[in-house]
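Example: Globoside alpha-1,3-N-acetylgalactosaminyltransferase 1-like isoform X5.
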Amino acid sequence: MLNKLIFLGYTSTSVGYKDKRFCLNLTKEHQENSKLQLPQGISYKQPSVVGPDGKVIATTPWLSPIVWEGTFDPFLIDTIYKQQNITIATTVFALGKYTQFLKDFLESAEQNYFIGFRVHYYVFTDQPEQVPEVKLGEERQLTVLKVPSSNRWQEITLRRMEKLEKLIESRLVSEADYIFSLDVDTKFYGRWGSESLGRLVGVIHPGYYQTPREQFPYERRPESQAFIPHAEGDYYYGGAVIGGLVKDVHEAAKTCREQLDIDAAKSIEAAWQEESHLNKYFLYNKPSKVLSPEYLWQDFKPHTNEVKIIRFSQVIKNYAAVRPNP
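Written out as structure tokens, the predicted fold is:
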């Protein structure tokens, strides 16, 4: 393997990138007030992504940006963030036959993802020997974390929050400033840079960005911890992307994992596993930045008038061929 590829057990430790870390000088009171929490049961109109005139909407009702092409200056925002000497951790899960997607994911990331920034990929896999050799740029590193196999793709999905939570606690609190957890069966087609950074970041699912919330595939059974009533909801967020400051993503992952455990104890599996729980979390803990469907498209979908550029997309695949079970 290349000298930038490191194989480690899940509980292993490694030396961080830098001796002095950049700190945000925020008081505890300011940090707490920056959270955008909503009490349950509040009634309000569903926010739109596209206006009546056909133009995209670039702000949520709680005044978080929705990032679209044309809403930011790439040079300006990169210049601001590069001064901060930040590290972006990026996790992907490649178990079983999903290792076949790693090469395209990593090679396309090296062409488009946080170019010019310090990036550390963490690849969770049950087959370390299948991790491909990919040339990494300067200040970019990859660590392989071996995890057990599973006979159910649902179980793999359900345990991602737990593994993310533990990785943050054991390593990322001292190794990274921001983190993105991304699906591996994807490919980068355009710039994904510092415009995506924020305290807590979600992405609008490309299949539901103009759908009434009553038709969102939320978990609708009240007995599940992921339950969302038909009259509630902002956007339907894709589970393929979650990001933000390490501490805020840890809180999200920990909460989702706890809710998943409560459901599991009652033999309940939410409609879309961790994605259902993530949507519940984002409904009452509003993201500070929302990524438009440019940041999560699907290769089989035709281009639309709203989406001017596709930056990151789920590739076409035969689920029966790559999943261990139906």
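The chain has one domain: 68-321.
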